[in-house]
User: Fold Tyrosine decarboxylase from Fraxinus pennsylvanica.
Amino acid sequence: MEGIQVQKHENETIKPLDPEEFRKQGHMVIDFLADYYENVEKYPVRSQVQPGYLRQRLPESAPCEPEPLEEILRDVQKDIVPGITHWQSPNYFAYFPSSGSTAGFLGEMLSTGFNVVGFNWMSSPAATELESIVMDWLGKMLKLPNEFLFSGGGGGVLQGTTCEAILCTVVAARDQMLKKIGRENINKLVVYGSDQTHSALQKAAQIAGINPNNFRAVSTTKADAFGLAAEALRSTIEADIEAGLVPLFLCATIGTTSSTAVDALNPLCEVGKEFGIWVHVDAAYAGSVCICPEFRHFLDGVENADSFSFNAHKWFFSTLDCCCLWVKNPGALVKALSTYPEYLRNKASESKQVVDYKDWQITLSRRFRSLKLWLVLRSYGVDNLRKFLRSHVNMAKNFEGLIAMDKRFEVVVPRNFSTVCFRISPIEIGKNQIITMEEATNNFNSKLLESINESGKIYMTHAVIGGVYVMRFAVGASLTENWHVNLAWKVVQEHANALLNMS
Amino acid sequence: MEGIQVQKHENETIKPLDPEEFRKQGHMVIDFLADYYENVEKYPVRSQVQPGYLRQRLPESAPCEPEPLEEILRDVQKDIVPGITHWQSPNYFAYFPSSGSTAGFLGEMLSTGFNVVGFNWMSSPAATELESIVMDWLGKMLKLPNEFLFSGGGGGVLQGTTCEAILCTVVAARDQMLKKIGRENINKLVVYGSDQTHSALQKAAQIAGINPNNFRAVSTTKADAFGLAAEALRSTIEADIEAGLVPLFLCATIGTTSSTAVDALNPLCEVGKEFGIWVHVDAAYAGSVCICPEFRHFLDGVENADSFSFNAHKWFFSTLDCCCLWVKNPGALVKALSTYPEYLRNKASESKQVVDYKDWQITLSRRFRSLKLWLVLRSYGVDNLRKFLRSHVNMAKNFEGLIAMDKRFEVVVPRNFSTVCFRISPIEIGKNQIITMEEATNNFNSKLLESINESGKIYMTHAVIGGVYVMRFAVGASLTENWHVNLAWKVVQEHANALLNMS
Assistant:
């Protein structure tokens, strides 16, 4: 019996990477995904499963015997797809988009297929060199000053996410400063952002060992459109210096997560310079659109910052993860992050003629991420990329126009890019309810949003800005067209009608 | 003229994610990669390009107009492939493998295709739940104690790389300790490894703000097979305590990078317990093979550690990046790494019934990495996975046997897994040269390795262990079969013959 078993196995030897099996199964998954995109509108955008749904459906242990791909794909359809929130749906308007694209997908396929571990130049020269070239291309498209490009003594690197980009720059700034003031003063270092800055900054500071008491979320106001005011920053810094602390790092944001507010870089960088702090510009979402000349002014002042990053996986068609970081002084990163164990020594590194990106990031191993950016840039071309981004902005403008025609709603903060923050305004609720207070309005809008999202027809998320609960309508999913936006507005109105009639 | 141009563009509107275009182009890239695997043996394993080769070939800026995929793939073949070091080649024996597989590739395709950003449960429940389930499956396959599984109060999470896994656990341990002893004592914390521990530990400690003077690389000896001796650790710790420092964290290794040495976990964990330090077990390379009962004993004692990790992208067919981390006390990670801004608030998180993996890692955004592990486990089944791993070990044994038959060579340290550390022994060089010193032997082996690698026929890398320069022959590339190993040995002998005749 056991002999027969062995015989059977010998005849049906499975190889982990047989080219013909790869080809056959690869085509099957391409078709599966193409079908998925064709049908993605049919699924509820926000997943409707309950916590623990999957454990009930899957076995308790991994199978001993192999299972055919057909069966696995059936299970993906049956068990996984219902548990997915469909970020690629044209009716997805939540958070910020994670804009996939054919070219980005193909680039990721090539990267996964070659599966090189490009920690240094030697380990796969093309991975390092293409990354440097593409980062220079992108830097030029964004009209970053030459100091951020390799030709100007700076350089760009692909991180996974903005969290990593900020952590790397905080650590570089920290070590530069500690070298000056002595490591015993680490608890005096202070990191600055605004109350609109992404939580990535606080987390990075925390990981880097910055005293949690020394994280400053400087308050913003509606009057400043929730941008960080240079004067507020200055007085916070001055108070810290007075208290014997040492200002270290500022993260300014172009397009905040809650409301896409913009921190004015010129005055902030001036303050930064005055106090000798590292200024990082986080344009995670809005950086992409600054390749359009009419949006470039939002980056004015970046020439005075120390580092700049944006997420190509957010609104630049480059599938998660792909964060583009440029620094003026790569040496500061390298000093803080380099290691050079014997087993990685090689002639090329010793020649100092090459970039070893392992010293520009947290991890040693790194994927060949530049392939997807290269494919996106070449497959679409700069003109089309601008066209795509402008079409998203125009769809958001259209949505804004629809809101303006319905007096019950209001746009809460000015729209800068492709995201609209809006709500049912307090007055309208007052007509149907006795409660007219801000809190009741917030509650009502929260209920409205939940009702919309539960329908599965569209998906938006919320923010609270200056105490006001807003629904965020973020356009940027790659399949979204203008008629989806019109339909989304109808969904919002229908749910508002129903809720207002009930109340 | 301009009118015609506009007309043309309107007719040929490019969409970033058209399902039919996706299907067509996806099939093209699958075929491109299948052809690549069929031909990968023809390329020199280690890239032979010179620094700067690519900048000479590519334009200085991104194109304005779109380019067809056919042309881009021609350029990949012409400009990128020569600059790749072929980690997927069957003749790749360098560093550790990055073992790709059809199933791993398909899983990555699905993950990229869905392109969800699974930072919390809500953002895509399936991403979180499948990860928890698969990590439990894997934990059971490794016979990890129940305390590391979700059912036992612990849990597993997928990180990108071991660097991240170690950084997260160092930060968790740091904050736990600082809560006890006060943040003003951060400069007293000490982190321990051996002189064989991966540089990831030193880098993680450095990023976490541990005083660089307080990183201990405890010396190992040949007598201990380069494993970390508990007594050496204890005396180092005692000296630190004497000096007023605070022991924090130990990283023990199962399968070191240089020589795949093994730190004996039981006695080390005992010391760890005695001094109240966090013990992390880094089995980046060798963890995989511990799913085979005959190798499981290398993990004995892991039940007394605080955390354990291995890289599924190294020797578990799961393409970069995919590091599996288990912790006994997820609360420690969450305390150190959680953020909960308003825009991420949701009912599921508030119910406390779900895992929000963003609080178990450095970054907020995260890919749906568990899909590739799920596909690997199901497509091959546990029995085949064991078979694959054993076949690699057997190939390494075969190589070892070939070395033993040629008296000029020696195996320098005992082989534990699928990596053989060997060299031309000093005596043989003595026959042809007047120099018999260790240094001359090292130089000779270094020259030999460079000559072998330059040939492009196979690729190995080196290490220096206890002052001895060794060539590392690491088996594990998914396409490698035994005849590749035999051929590799012939290449080594040929180059040795040539060099010995010359000298």
